[in-house]
Here is the input.
Amino acid sequence: MLVSLKHVALLRVIFTEWKKCGGIPLAIITIASLLANKGHIKAKDEWYALLSSIGHGLTEDRSLEQMKKILLFSYYDLPSYLKPCLLYLSIFPEDYEIARGRLIWRWISEGFVYSEKQGTNLYEVGDNYFNELVNRSMIQPIGIDNDEKVKACHVHDMVLDLICSLSSEENFVTILDDTGRKMPNSEIKVRRLSIQSSKIDAETTRMEHMRSVTIFTSDVVGKVLDISSFQVLCVLDLEGCKNVSDVGYVGNLLHLRYLGLKATHVKDLPMDIGKLQFLLTLDIRGTEIEALPSSVVQLRRLMCLYVDYNMKLPSGIGNLTSLEVLDELGLSDVDLDFVKELGHLTKLRVLKLDCDDFDESLVKALEESINNIYKLESLDVYVIHGLINCPSEDWVPPPQLRRLAFRSNVSWFKTLPSWINPSSLPLLSYLEIKVFEV
Here is the structure.
C-alpha cells in the first residue's frame, strides 16, 4: 500500500497526540474528534501548530487538571453557535439521560437555534447541532431509534464538571444540588435555575428575573419555590416531578415558550393557557389530564404538542397552523369536522395517531387531510381493530415521508399497496405494515 507524505505527517501528529492522551479513553476520543473536525488542514506545519496549541497534555502529569486542559481546548474550538448549546447541558444532573427531542425544543425556546436562511426548519438546525456535539464527542449518544437517529444523550462526568464550572463563571446556569452549590449574591441576576435538591434556601423565591427553571425534585414546587412570581419565565420544565398536581399559575407566565409537565400528576390545564401566545412546546404526556381546555387552540405559535392518545382535544385544532409535531393524537369519538381540521396543519412533520373505532367516512376524510400535509416526514397510525385495505389503493401519500408505520392487531392490507413504491415514496427509509400476502 502506498502512503503519501501528507498522510505520513498526519500519522505522526496522531501518534504524538495518542502519547499525549496517556491512554485515557476520554482524552483519546476527544482529541480524535478534534482532529477529525480539522479536515481542512493540509500542511504539516499547520498540524504541528495545532498540536502545540493543545499543550503538553497528559505526558508530564496525568492529573485531572491536564485532562481538563484538553477538554477546555475542545470547548474553545467549538463554533460560537455550539458553545451555549453545550453549556446548557449543565442544567441536567450527573448521569441523567437527556432525550434528544426535549433538548432540541428547549434549545429552540431559549433562542440558541437560528438560521439566516428564510424558511429553514429550526428543529432540523437544532438536530444538526446535536449531531455535531455527538461527532465532537462532547456528548455521548444513548440508543438508536427505528429512523437510525440517536434517542438521547448523557454527558461524561469530566465534561459535566467543566461545563458546570464555565456556566457558573459566566452566570449562564445556576445549579442547586447536594454538593454545596449555593445561590450567587443578591447583586447577580439568576437567568437559568436548575434545582436538583430539595434543600434550597427560601431566597430563591425573590428571583423575579428568572428566564428558565428546571426542577428535578418535587418537594420545592409550590412550597419553597413560588414559580408564579417569575413573570419573564420562558422555560418551565417540571418533567418527572410526581408531587406536582396544580399548575393553575402558568396562564400568567406570558413569556413562556416551553412547558414540560411530562410524568407529573397534573390533572388540568388552566383555561387561560390560551394567553401564552409565545408558547412553542407543550408536553403533557404521562399526566392525569383527560381533556385540554378549548383555549388551547389559541396557541398560534405552538410548534410541538405531546399528548397521550386518551386525552381529548377540543374542536378548532386546525387553528394550530404552526404545529410541526403532534404526538400522539387519539381519534376515537371524534366527528368528521375534527378529522378534516387536521388537513389545515400543513407544517406538520411528525404525526402519530390512534384511530380505534374508525368508520369508512372518517377514514376517507383522514386520507384527504393527510394528503394536504405535504411536509409530513413521519406518520404512525395505530388501530386495535384494523380496517382492511386502508388507506385505499388510490391514496397518494405525502412525498416527503421518511417513516411510515401502520400498526394493528390484525393484518391491515390484503396485499402490498401499489402506492408503496420508490416513485411515490422516494425518501422512505422505514416501513412497518401487516399484509396477508406480499
About this structure: The chain has a mean pLDDT of 82. The first strand starts at residue 98 and ends at 99.
